[in-house]
Design brief:
Length: 146
C-alpha cells in the first residue's frame, strides 16, 4: 500500500467515525458538544443533540420537550408509559423505576408490587399465613379468607 492509500483509508475511517457520532450522539448520556463534555442544558434530559443540545429523550420519570414535566403520580419510566399497580401509597411510587417506596398493598410483594403473595400467605408484606382453607376455596392473597 502506498502512503497515499494509507492516508485515504485513514481519512475515510475518520469521516465514518465522525458521521457515527453525529448520527448517534455522545456515548455518555446527558452530554453533548464536540468533546461530549458539556452537560445537556435540560437537567432531566438523557439524550441531547450533539451540536445544539436540544433534548431528544428524557430520563425515565420525565417528559415534555425539555423534560420539565415529572410523570403523573401512579406512572413511571421512559415517557411515563408504565403504571404503578399495587403500591400501599401510590404517591410513593418512584417515577424513575416504579419502586413502591413505602411497600405494597396487602396481597402483593416485590419492589414493583406486581407479584401476588405466594400461595398460602396473604396480607401486608405477605406476612400472614393462611389457615385451614378448604381445598376448593383458595386462600385469598389479600384477606386470607375466600
Ligand atoms: C475539548 O477538549 C479540549 C482539550 O481537552 C479543550 O481545550 C476544549 O475546551 C474542549 N472543548 C469543549 C467544547 O469542551
Ligand atoms: C428506584 O428509584 C428510587 C428513587 O426514585 C431509588 O431510591 C431506588 O434505589 C431505585 N431502585 C432501583 C432498583 O433502581
Amino acid at each position: 500500500m502506498s502512503l497515499s492509500d494509507v492516508l485515504a483509508v485513514w481519512l475515510c475511517l475518520l469521516t465514518v467515525s465522525q458521521a457515527y457520532v453525529e448520527v448517534y450522539g455522545c456515548p455518555a448520556t446527558g452530554y453533548f458538544g464536540s468533546n461530549c463534555s458539556v452537560p445537556c442544558p435540560d437537567v432531566n434530559c438523557q439524550y441531547c443533540h450533539i451540536k445544539t443540545g436540544t433534548c431528544q429523550g428524557c430520563k425515565p420519570g420525565y417528559k415534555g420537550h425539555r423534560c420539565e414535566i415529572t410523570c403523573e403520580r401512579g406512572t413511571y419510566g421512559a415517557g411515563c408509559k408504565e403504571t404503578c399497580e399495587h403500591c400501599r401509597d401510590v404517591n410513593q411510587c418512584s417515577v424513575n423505576n416504579g419502586t413502591c417506596l413505602t411497600g405494597c398493598d396487602a396481597g402483593f410483594k416485590g419492589d414493583l408490587c406486581k407479584t401476588a403473595c405466594d400461595r398460602g400467605s396473604y396480607g401486608y408484606d405477605c406476612k400472614e399465613t393462611c389457615g385451614h382453607c378448604r381445598d376448593r376455596y383458595p386462600c385469598s392473597n389479600i384477606k386470607g379468607g375466600v
